[in-house]
Structure prediction request, 234 residues.
Amino acid sequence: MMTTIAKASIALMLTTTTTEPSTTTTTESSTTTTEPLSTFITTAEPGSTTTEADLISLDSTDRGVYAIYQTKISKNSQRSAVGNLYGSYPPDQSPDNACDGNHLTKYLNFGMCFEDSHEVQCGLDTGFFLELKRGASLVTGLQICTAEDYATRDPLTISLEGSNEPYPTLILGPSWTLIYNGPSGLQKDPGRLTCGIVQLVNNSAQYKSYRFLVSGKRNISNSVQYSELKLFGH
Ligand SMILES: *[C@@H]1O[C@H](CO)[C@@H](O)[C@H](O)[C@H]1NC(C)=O
Ligand SMILES: *[C@@H]1O[C@H](CO)[C@@H](O)[C@H](O)[C@H]1NC(C)=O
Ligand SMILES: [Ca+2]
Prediction:
């Protein structure tokens, strides 16, 4: 069921091209060798990046997705709890929702605020980490997709760190290597339930675990939210 949803949303984002098999009947061209499929990431923005990469499944190991707040690059992760208080996320808006391939589910975190406060810093320095079920993977691009409401909560500045350390060492800041720190691709609001521009990540190392943090948002709001984090690579 989850796979079906993920494929449906991937189809919105990606154009897959395959090499047509030759129709000639010569011995040479009737080889059964199959060309590897190349997936090209395209975005709605003209002039934006186009690269060859696959969508990396964010299915996690059985430990699940670890919600965090009050956490900065290379610092220790502070665990975020379920709720509508300081340092929490609503029960139906957990970080699993940012990794499920479904644009209709979102992750929302209040960060260092209560639900009814509306401040510049609410929701900042929140995010999550997870260990990929598929194992060590090379990330070469990332993309963030908006939720259904409140553009003010959109992440504008984000970071991605990678690690091959085991849990619980993974909670500690020095476990992580920074591989991206910059714009989210949502600077120009693409609209609700829509993915931003793919950001290329200059990285040559494979990691089993990834930590995603939001350090800037669009405007004053009580939280930061997004429907999907997409990682591309191999
Ligand atoms: C990518 O990273 C390598 C190694 O850190 C560096 O030498 C290179 O200049 C970087 N390329 C870009 C486009 O930033
Ligand atoms: C942020 O919100 C304020 C108040 O609604 C508005 O005046 C301002 O233009 C907004 N800033 C941006 C960058 O959207
Ligand atoms: Ca989702």
